Structure formats: C-alpha cells, structure tokens
Known about the structure:
This protein has helices spanning 3-8, 11-25, 33-50, 56-67, 72-75, 78-96, 122-148, 151-154, 168-178, 195-205, 218-221, and strands at residues 160-164, 184-188, 209-213, 227-228. The chain is α/β, with parallel strands linked by helices. Strands 3-2-1-4 form a 4-stranded parallel β-sheet, with helices on one face. The protein is elongated, with a radius of gyration of 22 Å.
Amino acid sequence: MDSYLINKVPKETLVQLEEFSAYLKDHTKSKTSYESVIKTINILKELICASDWVTAGELIKIIKTYSKYLPLILSNETVVSNVIRRVLKIIREENEGPDAASVSEGLAIFFRSDSKSSNIGRNDLQDNILNSIVELLAEQENSKSNIITMALEHIHTNELILTYGHSNTVREFLLHGRKKRNFRVVVCESGPSLKGHKMAKELSEGGIETTLIADSAAFAIIHAVNKVIIGTHTIMADVH
Length: 240
C-alpha cells in the first residue's frame, strides 16, 4: 500500500481497503454489478469518514491514490471505476459548485488536478458529501425496482421473448410481467457457465412457459422471437 495512504488512513480502514481489493480479485465467486456498486460506495464512505484530510483536494488525492491499487482491469469491474468517478464528481461539486465536474469527462477525471480551494470546513464539506452519497445509494437501490415496474409497458400477451444466461433484474422483470401477461420465454444456456439453466428453472417455477436451448440454437428460433431481453453489466457512454 502507498506510504501516503498509510499516513492518511487508520489501520482498521486499511484492512477494509485490502479486503475490498481481495473481493475484486476473487473470480471464484459470481458477483453482480449491483453488489460491486454498493460495496464500492460503502468503502468510499469509510475512506471519507476515517481518513485524515482537511481540504477537498486532499480527500480527492486519497481516493485517487487508493484507486491505483484496485485491480479494476483484472476484475473487469467497470462499475467500480464508474462509481469512483461519480464520487469524485460529488466531492468537486460540493466544494466548487455544480459546474465543477462534467460526467462527459470520463477517465479524465482521474487525471485532473486536485479540487480548487474552498472556505468550507471539513465537517460541513464531509456532511454535504455524505448526504450526496446517501442519495447515490438510494438511486442504486431504486433503479432495479424502477426497471421492473416497466415490465407491463414492454411485454405483451403471446409474445416469445429470448434471453441469455442469468440476470436477477431480467428474471424479476419477466416475473412481474407474468402477473398480467401470458407469454413464453426461450433461455440460451450461456456456455460454458450454463447460468441459463438456473434462469430457466426460476422462470418456470414462476409460472412462465420456458424453454432452455443451446446457444448455437438461437439462430434457428430468432425469426419467431418478438423481443430479446438481456441483462447488462455495464453501459458505455458511446453506444455505437
């Protein structure tokens, strides 16, 4: 761990930072993007509360220094870096005002110079930052339910829907639609993990007529499919 962090962060918090890094490195357990987002927000909250900082610039330096040690590329957890950018943006906005950082900055936010000086004391600044992070947590917690409630707007009776692998959000979306619509679902098994088997079982138990197929068979039935609904791990800014 960087000597700067060791001097700025209590030992107990350093242990939590190491545990979070180990979580990202662990490929033996399946992780949902939602779990990774919540864990990232919580570890950043701990870093903000426990670290020794006075100005926003110092806090930003602490977070950016720690982010260099996160195995983001190896873990393929793009949502983690997105959350870090969002929190850095929150810190700059609370310190400098709403025009301090733009979402369009993307990776550039990691390389910006530290936040401008401000007359806001640590206590007030920390409270404002934590309040904004609470709102960010609520946004994440409500996003899934907001998606699920739109099921009846997109699923119609007698449709054939194709999905791939397993997604908690897609499963709940389809089960919510089943409450008022009769439709069929075809699930690609998603080799080599075969997570589609779990998805097919859960949908069938929920009362949805479900067929499990090999991935290679998707081409044969695609002409009859009305909709393809799949889970997403990351949505990139450039959708082209």
